[in-house]
Design goal:
The protein is α/β, with parallel strands linked by helices. It has two domains: about 1-115 and about 255-350, Isopropylmalate Dehydrogenase (3-Layer(aba) Sandwich); about 120-255, Isopropylmalate Dehydrogenase, CATH 3.40.718.10. Helix content is about 40%, strand content about 20%. It is built from eleven helices and 14 strands. It has a ten-stranded mixed sheet, with helices on both faces. Helix 1 (about 15-25) crosses helix 9. The longest helix is centred in the middle third of the chain and has 17 residues, at about 160-175. The chain starts with a strand and ends with a helix. The chain binds nicotinamide-adenine-dinucleotide.
Length: about 350
């Protein structure tokens, strides 16, 4: 029996997590889900969108499945944390729940698997890229302020320690999954100190793995290459901001946000979530595509050693994707979230 923290999130979160759980349970893998409130549904009871019970649960169980959570744009919205379970003291403020979770739990590598699925329409074929995004620093450290009226400043932080551990994780993942090439993405020609350090340290770390080829691309060139010949790329290692932007570009290459899974992984815990957000306009409409969260669940099953169950879900999904009456509207189908989950669960049960 695995004990896993469950965060249903808000917006379309509850609907897609319900569908995902139904499919995972159809594999027969025994999971005791510990549901904790995070996001809008936590505020009333805990007066914060990220209560300590959630952080403690993830650290105790070491694994979490997370639905998307809403982050209001602009204004003074911030997530305040005083939790001391990570050894830090004092109040810390983060721009979003996801950023808070990644930082508080030190989930330093964001892994996004971008590949084509038969039946999912896309402008490109033969894409199979893994993005490894550094998750804790760069311009996302949240160190920004108004210098004077009309002038804002943001601090870009790159450290050897954070770069080395994300590069090491990427290299180990690549070797374990028979990948061949890791490309370090940067803008070291302009940001010579920060991105220069990222490039130098990442190349040094990946260079310790003789079976891997390491090369690099300047981020603007990388964007063009991903649009022109994405099938030539294998694994990419990126600082936080480029990783965020380029992995959404990656999702666009394979059919959109609705089909792209992800994971945030650290030494103490791992959290699995789709790349997309809470798509508030679809809340409660039984319209959202559960595929991205389900594939995040597949990554989670592999992470906890349930490889056979993960493969069953991938196979069942591939079968269901062929039938338009069983898939959601964004995939060109006519089914709702629930019906798509039900259809995949039924196929899983026969495998
Ligand atoms: P979004 O990903 O929620 O939605 C963008 C659009 O993509 C939607 O309007 C919809 O057309 C489509 N889409 C996304 N997921 C889909 C799905 N499963 N099925 C079908 N279509 C889907 O991005 P947004 O509108 O920029 O953000 C909405 C909220 O989500 C914001 O508050 C944002 O901060 C938050 N967000 C949360 C996370 C997270 O929790 N990890 C990630 C990204 C955004």
């Amino acid at each position: 029996m695995h004990k896993i923290t469950l965060i249903k999130g808000d917006g379309i979160g509850p609907e897609i997590t319900d569908a995902t759980i139904q499919v995972i349970e159809a594999t027969g893998v025994q999971i005791d889900w510990e549901e904790v409130p995070v996001g809008e549904n936590a505020v009333e009871k805990y007066h914060t969108p990220l209560p300590e019970v959630a952080l403690e649960s993830i650290l105790r169980n070491k694994v979490a499945l997370k639905g998307p959570t809403t982050t209001p744009f602009g204004g003074d919205y911030s997530v305040e944390i005083t939790w001391g379970g990570n050894g830090k003291k004092g109040v810390r403020k983060y721009p979003s729940i996801s950023v808070a979770l990644r930082n508080e739990l030190d989930l330093y590598c964001n892994v996004r698997e971008i590949k084509n699925y038969p039946g999912v329409e896309s402008k490109y074929q033969n894409i199979d890229i893994v993005f490894f995004r550094e998750n804790t620093e760069d311009l996302y450290a949240g160190k920004e302020h108004m210098v004077v009226d009309g002038v804002a400043e943001s601090l870009k932080i790159i450290t050897e320690k954070a770069t080395r551990r994300v590069a090491k994780f990427a290299a180990e993942y690549a070797v374990k999954n028979n990948r061949k090439t890791l490309t370090v993405v940067h803008k070291a020609n302009i940001m010579k100190k920060t991105d220069g350090l990222f490039l130098e340290v990442a190349q040094d770390e990946i260079g310790k793995y003789p079976s891997l080829e390491v090369n690099d691309r300047v981020v603007d060139n990388m964007c063009m290459q991903l649009v022109q010949k994405p099938e030539q790329y294998d694994c990419l290692v990126l600082p936080n901001l480029y990783g965020d932007v380029l992995s959404d570009l990656g999702a666009g290459l394979i059919g959109g946000l609705g089909v792209a899974p992800g994971a945030n992984i650290g030494d103490n815990a791992a959290e699995f979530e789709a790349i997309h957000g809470s798509a508030p306009k679809y809340t409660g409409l039984n319209r959202a595509n559960p595929m991205a969260l389900l594939l995040s669940g597949v990554m989670m099953l592999k992470h906890i050693g349930e490889v056979e169950a993960a493969q069953k879900i991938e196979k069942a999904l591939t079968i269901v994707l062929q039938d338009k009456s069983k898939i959601t509207v964004d995939l060109g189908g006519t089914a709702g979230t629930k019906e798509m989950g039900q259809a995949i669960a039924e196929v899983v049960a026969t495998l």
